[in-house]
Amino acid sequence: MPELSYREAVRDALSQAMRRDPDVFLMGEDIAEMGGSMGVTQGMLAEFGPERVRNTPISEMAIVGAGIGAAIQGMRPVVEIMYEDFTTLAMEQIVNQAAKHRYMSGGQVKVPLTIRTQGGAGWSPGAQHAQQVEAWFVHVPGLKVVFASTPTDVRGLLWSSIYDDNPVVFFEHRTLYGIREEVPDELEPIPLGQARVHRRGEDVTVVATGRLVHEALAAAADAESQGISVEVVDPRTLQPLDEATVVESVRRTSRCVVAHEAVTRMGFGAEVAAVVQHQAFDWLDAPIERVGAHFAPIPFAPVMEEFVVPHRQDVLDAILRTVGRA
Amino acid sequence: MATLVTLPRLGQGMESGEIVRWFKAEGDAVEKGEPLYEVDTEKVTQEVEAEASGVLLRIAVPAGEVPVGATLALIGEPGEEVQLEPAGDGSGGAAAAVVEDGREPAGAEAPSVGAAAGEPARVPLPIRPPSRPRVPGRPRASPLARRLARERGVDLATLVGTGPEGRIVAEDVERATGGEAFPAPGPVAAPAVAAADRVEEVPLTSVQRTIARRLTEAWEAPAFQLTMSARMDRAEAVVASHREADGEEVKVTLTDVLAKMCSLALLEHPAVSSQFAGETLRVFSTANIGIAVAAPQGLVVPVIRGVERLRLAEIAAARDDVVERARAGTLQTADLEGGTFTISNLGMYGVEQFVAVLNPPQAAILAVGAVEERPVVEEGAVVVRPMLTMTLTCDHRAVDGAAAARFLAAVKRLLESPGLAL
User: Fold this and answer.
1) B69 has a chain A CB within 8 A of its CB
2) Which residue in A has a C-alpha nearest to residue B170's C-alpha?
3) Which partner from A9, A101, B91, B338 sits 20 to 30 angstroms from B56, CA to CA?
4) How close does chain A come to B208, measured CA to CA in Å?
């Protein structure tokens, strides 16, 4: 099995789709010669040419708007927003256009658009380049939202997103681009709306997304050395959410921690907690714990940034609270 | 300036109390006179009111047993600084402030990180929004523990929680029922033991501890018993006539008649209405009669005062009130104090007769069995009569046999001829 980095896995999914299907093409800022600010599309200009790997002006609204138009016309565009912080500039196109056309046309118009973006803290990019904003998009009916945490997942989920007939906002995490793992020889599409159980456990379920999946796995190993058996579930697709897998897990463990890098308050984890408390109420033996960033802008100073966003120890602390050992 | 909340002495002989729950959370506004916390004393579980108005700044004792006079909490002004334990490390001050902001909606603005950095040992206590009011008497238990308790027929009120802040968790229910593994075994589950070998260690409630201590004391008193039976047809007619009468909300029972007759007999025979007090005898001129009640948390004996002055309907109303509150666990200390004599009636269970243990410091207790039809000899012939057998237990240091016999005979005479009580 080949070993790919997360970055290479994204590139592999894009390249395989473009080789197979002339309707798939890329648009974004500096994605052609430069290969994107994160190097994801490096080398793709040479293979696919400037018609299919298109640099755009610095206008997120124009990038997404052009993508919507192409998608309505039958293409399967993949547009890149350099930082998820900049999706603010394309909100009108994403929320009021892409998410609405299929509904408002009575199903006559489809928008098979994939909006790739990346973000996250951990490398001191400052308050305007370090946010995790997935909660804005899971709140909008008409959008699908994906957040992949491993090379295998990002490859299989991006493929499914490109071939989904609905607009998909596809989140990647800046600090995950370098992680490597063996991936299947053949790209295996991963259906949207299907969670992944990374690790089986009996005492606590940690529902984690993005970078926090890895922090949760490390915390689970720590907890195991203290005799606590932790199950780690990554929903992978935030919208639609695989409620069944999460709820089934919590009904077995009777305790739940939700963890993401975004601020805790009003975050994606709040929705998971609501789903769990409702569907697993009679199975809960402890309050659901939430792990996320403090309610503050992400500081530039590395030591402060480190303090504001959650890490392995925060997940472990939450696990210990659920079993009454904090 | 903050006001200290300390554990008051709620009754004679109270040395300590167990804090059961707080009705307010830290940061909640508190009005003088509203219930602040609940304390479990040796006698009762009682709500204690706030003695000052302000904001509950700090709860020093969330739960657990503390001596009388111990500091339980601080009430002060909103935003008032109170001394905290020094943080564990130099960064603790700033960290604590931000963590609290992250958890509680203290304000929409970003936390001012570092504001307290220079003074880690003294930080402003964040004022939290009011928490939802807790329902008094409802045990804190996890949803899973509640479901297991429901399925297994366990009364949560009988369990002691081992979870955070005394929460009853699934493991506690499992322990109480000796159940086998359920879907979520706790992380610190004990090694599996065959169900048949399992011995349960059920911690005593405060009330049960008190009962055990006092009954052991009572056993040391030199006691004797006298038994007598009474014909009950006329007493039963009195009960029946009250039940037929209009306007009585509470049904008069035989216990009420017994209380009334005992009160009159007690005043007639003051030796039984007394207490042995070392160098003296305390003799009472009123009959405060305790009624033994099997409450969920254990045996309690609430007292009806001045029974000799009450009509039967009034006795019934007073008895109904204290028995209901005993079963609901809402008796106050005052309900249990000042008794001069106790009646324990097990007749409703079909007990024919039994011997009660003294209820110190009282000198006598009357054990009452069931009214049943028995063959008795009257004027040389065997006839069937409704009969009641009573056994009086007396503290011999206060009462001698003849006095006790005269008292018992007076009770018998009043029961058999209730008109004499008029």
Assistant:
1) no
2) A285
3) B91
4) 28
| Amino acid in position B74 | L
B15, with CB counted inside 10 A (0-12, 13-18, 19+), is exposed
Residue A255 burial (10 A CB sphere; 0-12, 13-18, 19+)? buried
Q: Specify whether the CB–CB gap between B305 and B338 falls below 8 A.
A: yes
Distance of alpha carbon A102 from alpha carbon A95, whole angstroms? 12
Gyration radius of chain B's alpha carbons:
28
Asked if B110 and A296 come within 8 Å (Cβ–Cβ), the reply is yes
- What single-letter amino acid sits at A260? H
Nearest to B184 among A252, A297, A325 (CB): A252
pLDDT digits (tens, 9 = 90+) for B140-198: 899 999 989 888 888 888 888 888 878 889 888 988 887 543 444 444 444 444 455 66
B289–A contact, CB cutoff 8 A: no
Q: Is A78 helix (H, G, I), strand (E, B) or coil?
A: strand
The DSSP-derived string for B331-346 is --HHHHS--SEEEEE-
pLDDT above 90 (res B296): no
- Spell out the residues 6+ positions from residue A278 whose beta carbon is closer than 8 angstroms to its own: none
Q: What pLDDT does B197 receive?
A: 62
Look at the block and give the residue holding tokens 């939430």: A290
Q: What is the pLDDT along chain A (326 residues), one digit of tens a residue?
A: 899 999 999 999 999 999 999 999 999 999 999 999 999 999 999 999 999 999 999 999 999 999 999 999 999 999 999 999 999 999 999 999 999 999 999 999 999 999 999 999 999 999 999 999 999 999 999 999 999 999 999 999 999 999 999 999 999 999 999 999 999 999 999 999 999 999 999 999 999 999 999 999 999 999 999 999 999 999 999 999 999 999 999 999 999 999 999 999 999 999 999 999 999 998 999 999 999 999 999 999 999 999 999 999 999 999 999 998 87
Q: Which of A274, A159, A291, A142 is nearest to A213 (CA)?
A: A291
Q: What is the DSSP string of A99-134?
A: TTHHHHTTTS-----EEEEEE-SSS---TTSS---H
Can you list the positions of beta strands (E) in A148-250?
Answer: 168-173, 180-182, 196-199, 204-208, 230-234, 237-239
A202 contacts on B by Cβ (under 8 Å):
184-185
**Using the 8-state DSSP alphabet, how is residue B249 labeled?**
S
Catalytic residue among A60, A134, A261, A289: A60
For residue B304, the Cα-to-chain-centroid distance in whole angstroms is 16
Euclidean distance between CA atoms B255 and B323, whole angstroms: 12
Distances (CA, A) of A210 to A178, A233, A265: 14, 11, 17
What sign does the dihedral B107-B112-B115-B116 (CA atoms) show?
Answer: positive
Which residue among the candidates A29, A80, A101, A129 is catalytic per the annotation? A129
Tell me if residue A60 is catalytic: yes
For B148, nearest residue in chain A (alpha carbons): A282
Q: How far is A308 from chain B (nearest CA, A)?
A: 9
Q: What is the DSSP string of A250-294?
A: HHHHS-EEEEEEEESTT-HHHHHHHHHHHHSGGG-SSPPEEEEE-
Best of A252, A295, A303 to disrupt the B interface by mutation (most B CBs within 10 Å)? A295
8 Å CB contact of B145 and A285: yes
- CA angle at residue A71 from A70 to A74, to 5 degrees? 95
- Kindly determine whether residue A264 and residue B102, on different chains, have CB atoms separated by under 8 Å: yes
Asked if A203 lies within 8 A of B186 by C-beta distance, the reply is yes
